[in-house]
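#structure-requests
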Amino acid sequence: MGWDDYLAVTAFILQIIFTALTHVSTGYGLGRLFAEVGDPETYVTAVKWELFAHVPAILMSGVSKCSVAVFLLRIIRNKLQIRLIWFFIGSTAFIAVFTSIVAIVQCEPLEKGWNRTLIGYCRFDFPKLGLFTGTWYVVMDFAFAIFPWFVIWGLNMKRKEKITVACGLSLGVFAGICGILRTVSLIGLDPSEYMYNTVPMMIWSATENLVTLMCSSIPVFRPLYVRIKYGSKDESSSNSRSYNLNEYGNRKSVVVSTGGIGQRSGTSRTVVAFNGDNISEEAILRDSKDQNIAAGGIKRTDEISVSYEARGMPN
């Protein structure tokens, strides 16, 4: 497992916590009108648990975006793009942590955050901050969906196969669509019946996170699909095509030359070995720096014969 996998598991755990807190809030009145709840204290309790649910909701979306970003770092080798992705990771982590903290400590006293009838004041306009955070997450979804195209399009592959692989790595666009719907529901939120009108926003928040996790997992499931379809990795690899991945794969090159000074011919032999199994999108593009050439690797030998005429030395 890589760091992207650990982040994905963390996002899923946060999703479970979010679901549990939402379930508690539903028991007190989340999704119902104030008149249907009847008791003001019960209504306030529902708001409190719903507000607590915002913390894992904000964090799980941020963590899932970072998981996708870390996965992209495995296949991207352009230094500018790597720096840009690290900027996205850092800014997303900061925004997620800051917004989740503000969700709880936005008012003084803290209880005013879920009970607006109390005397006090609020330091932040949380709805506007939530709108900014949601918009940033949408930008991240579409940015991470675009990055793989820059990588794939430079490879020596058929156009159809480029599109297939790039689309497999760009499924996060569906999470971006869910994020847009979540942001739109937040803009149109009517605070007069908050517990009833906030339901669409919470549904789309959970959907966005789960869609992000599913879409980021699909590309790495391809080896499992190939293994099931062909029976084993070696069988499928023997029938698969190989591609020129000089820029992205690990290559070991040895040049052996024969012939010396004054000879009229010589032979130069270049042995080029590539690592990787060429099965999954990640395996096609990953860097295998510290690995030896495995049995499933690609080895190419080029022999070049050169004929030449020695120039005589002047007396």
